[in-house]
Amino acid sequence: MKTYNEKMSIYHGMASTLAANTSSSYVPLFAMTILGATNYQVGLISSIPPLITLLMTIPAALLLNKAAEQKKLVAFSVLLARLVFLFIIFVVLIPGSAASWIFLALIAFMSIPNTMATMGWQALIGNIIEDHRRAQFFSDRNRMLTTVGLISTLTIGIVMRDATANAAAYQFLFVCAFGFGLLEVYFLMRHEEGLRVLEDEKKSAMNWIIFKDVGYVRFLLVALCFNFGWQMAWGLFNIYNVRYAEATIFWVSMFNVGSMVAQIFSFPIWRKWSEKYGNMRVFVWVAFGMSTAPFLTAISTNYYYLTFMYMLSGVFVSGTVLILFNLLLENSPKESRTYCITTYNVLLAIIAFIAPQIGIWVLDTFNMDVAMNVSSIVRFSAAVGFFYVYMKRKKAELSNNIIVK
Prior knowledge:
Order of helices and strands: HHHHHHHHHHHHHH
CATH class of the largest domain: Mainly Alpha
CATH architecture of the largest domain: Up-down Bundle
């Protein structure tokens, strides 16, 4: 039976999912179709949020550590982020190319409170959900939220299938996102947090000894390579869908629905395999699967084919989401795990800013096929790297067993 805070968190998650599904998936389509954004600007849509996250990580952590009640700070951050959608609906009134730049400025500003909200929610949920309940809680929560996301995305695609070039349709979606944001704030404030005991102890910002751990460094390098190949294609997929395949709101929604359906069914499979064979061994196959997505997607602009490709990639995306963070924990020395995770996230934010821009540069310098193939090659190289790390670990474990005997 779920506790009160677990119920409130699930309700908050549903509202958050609805807010994201009525905005995030359609932001690139709105930018290209209505505002006439360039490829470079589309790349910035993917690059700006991680850059802001990188810059805001330390200030956000300081504010959260000083907050007696984190839920109030998180709720205010969510409200501020969702308020930006009310300004975005008026961007269409701005003439010329200035509209797309102002839109990007609003996206950048929105990323500031979004960073605070994301970090704050992680800290809040860690404090109010008991350790022994987290695995079951997150399993149930993720399944419910994915289902809500699936239904909402499917509904939007069907209702607005003929409104791809209609600015009012996007304005309506952004107003809905703001409305769901208000629900997020409401359910956040309903959580029972209690006053936190603030610590006066000052800890070092960095512990460089973590880079002496060979296993962690190997994993870090390969994981960053994998994320680079993964994230450099984010802008490319948006451009391919809109400019090359000329997908409408309906088909963009169907692509996302296909991915979510695949994730719902594949999550339990990856969890079972990772428990049976180990996270690293299974992730090797996940990484190889992820490497096929850009190459195979660029083969055709047929909508049914692309929907199938999103379903196929969704299978491996679920494995990535489920296993990659567990691998980080496995490869981080326990005594310096916090520093390892922080270092990984900071470097990941840098990669997430640079990678989409590299992808757009390759596209503009060569063509879409080359850009997609480069992404596949980088992902494939990372998969080989994960296999190398797995074999080194296997060899080390074998050596230790022989010494023990």
